[in-house]
Amino acid sequence: MYVSVFRLSRAMPPQTLTQRQKQVLEFVREYAEYGGYSPTVAEIATHFRIWPRAAKKHLVALERKGYLNHPGGGARRAIGIVGRSASRSVPVVGQVAAGRPVLAVENIEGMVALDRALARWDDTFLLKVRGNSMLLAGIFDGDYVLVKPQNAAENGEIVVALLDDEATVKRFFRSDHTVRLEPANPEVDPIVVKEGERNLQIIGKVVALLRMFEGGRPHALSQS
């Protein structure tokens, strides 16, 4: 089995690639963007239906041309791409309001740098939780939830929903023509919405929880 480590190269400017090298580099980029980590040599070989030795040869060529670096080591998923930062800036949204884009300038209170493996979706944002309705799910007042924007959800998923003009973090359940937004606190009643009764919109799915510790920076506690 080939075990290779490829990290960011600063040695020389990128050089011209062959068609196959372009395909391999693009595959590595797309794989890392979607999954949050790089593919192994074996996975590259399987994708292109070539021998692992041939896949490694292409990676070595990309290294030689300034796209990758091979310092050695035992990590299997450490292919770094030139020009691709390990982190990205994620907006902290202060409020979500009806009729206005979530990421409108007036909604953004600041930016936080998060690892791309954690915040790997387009338009991902952080929302500060207000209240303790999700207490038993480990989500406390003042926590930050990382939200993957989407307008639908599966039963049991924790979502950010906009009900009329108020955002809420709850567990989502749909049954026939009724939606139930379930809290994780016995002292808080669930919100039951019949189809057409109120304006309900799913803003996104909660994919991670971050908590502010001493020093004023959010730290990831968990992710789905």
Overview of this protein structure:
With 224 residues, the protein is an alpha+beta fold. The protein folds into two domains: 1-84, Winged helix-like DNA-binding domain superfamily/Winged helix DNA-binding domain (Arc Repressor Mutant, subunit A, Orthogonal Bundle); 87-223, Umud Fragment, subunit A. The chain is built from three helices and ten strands; from the N terminus they run αααββββββββββ. It is elongated. The chain starts with 18 loop residues before the first helix and ends with a strand.
Task: Itemize the secondary structure elements and their pairings.
Elements: H1 19-35, H2 41-48, H3 52-64, E1 87-93, E2 108-115, E3 125-128, E4 144-149, E5 158-163, E6 166-175, E7 178-182, E8 191-194, E9 200-212, E10 218-223
Parallel strand pairs: 1-3
Antiparallel strand pairs: 1-2, 3-4, 4-9, 5-6, 5-9, 6-7, 7-8, 9-10
Helix pairs in contact: 1-3, 2-3
Features:
disordered N terminus; Arc Repressor Mutant, subunit A; Umud Fragment, subunit A; alpha+beta; 2 domains; elongated; ten-stranded mixed beta sheet; 224 residues
Q: At CATH's second level, what is the architecture of the largest domain?
A: Ribbon
Helix-strand topology string: HHHEEEEEEEEEE
Low-confidence stretches: 1-13, 71-75
Q: What would you call the shape?
A: elongated
**DSSP summary, beta strand count:** 10
Number of domains: 2
CATH fold category name of the largest domain:
Umud Fragment, subunit A
Average pLDDT reading: 77
CATH H level of the largest domain: which superfamily?
Umud Fragment, subunit A
Helix count equals 3
Q: Any idea of the CATH class of the largest domain?
A: Mainly Beta
**Fraction of residues in H or I helices:** 10-25%
CA-CA gap between termini: 31 Å
What integer value in Å does the Rg equal? 22 Å
The major pleated sheet works out as: 10 strands, mixed
| Strand-pairing-aware structural class | alpha+beta
Proportion of strand residues: 25-35%
